[in-house]
Amino acid sequence: MLSLKASVQKLPALKKVLESTNSVMLKDIYENLDELKDIYELIEKSIIEEPGITITERKYYKEGI
Q: What is the pLDDT of residue 54?
């Protein structure tokens, strides 16, 4: 999930690069590219990035999830 979050986090920068293209195909990708902000925010609020060291301490989800 954290790898997915890291990948999704790069989508706004990718869209910014595509914004200035002259290619019709890349312009179409730019116009239809979903930045998946909702997915990023869900992972951000749900997943603990540094779980505990021991098995008993290990939690993967934040409180309330």
A: 60
